[in-house]
Amino acid sequence: QLQQSGPGLVKPSQTLSLDCAISGDSVSSNNVMWNWIRQSPSRGLEWLGRTYHRSRWYTEYAVSVKSRINIKADTSKNHFSLQLSSVTPEDTAIYYCVRAIISSDAFDFWGPGTMATVSS
Amino acid sequence: QSVLTQPPSVSAAPGQRVSISCTGNSSNIGAGFDVHWYQQLPGKAPRLLIYGNSNRPSGVPDRFSASKSGSSASLAITGLQAEDEADYYCQSYGNSRNDFYVFGTGTKVSVL
Fold this sequence. Notes:
heterodimer, A: seven-stranded mixed sheet, B: mainly beta
């Protein structure tokens, strides 16, 4: 199960911060990757980035947000987080934390989603 | 933004068959990467429907099937039911120089 938390309203130029708590799996598992994906009417479904552990931690980001995004795993809390800085109204979207299993590279388990609105 | 092209909507009566196309290019589907399909019920998160071009996860009814050929893929729903009314998205691996994963534009399936 993936449980998301974080503020639903963020002011322009500030940082959007969301957490995803994992139960029934481990953030350090070697056969999964932990992703953030967002969905908006204007941009559709958009993959933002991922983190995963293979003897060390890796992170990879979409080019569209690479200069503004940070995804981190916290093994003590078994969760991973998203930080997106310098937000604009274009970042208004539903944000999902999502597991991908490496055997298929498909997104096999999705969090419920958090509606994040960027507005003053 | 969505890179894979799908028809905006398809519709059919209960019991009928619908098919949804997903068109990519030589950087994604045409490069040999697998296609996955997701179902999104109103107000819900997407759910994995098909993985690896044609495989159904446990719990997905066999009236859902999919295939891939060249730079395109398709999803078919046979014996359409009212509960199948939803948005459907295809997804593949993109060009890692730009983005790792790409999604389709989405297709709304309506049951008449």
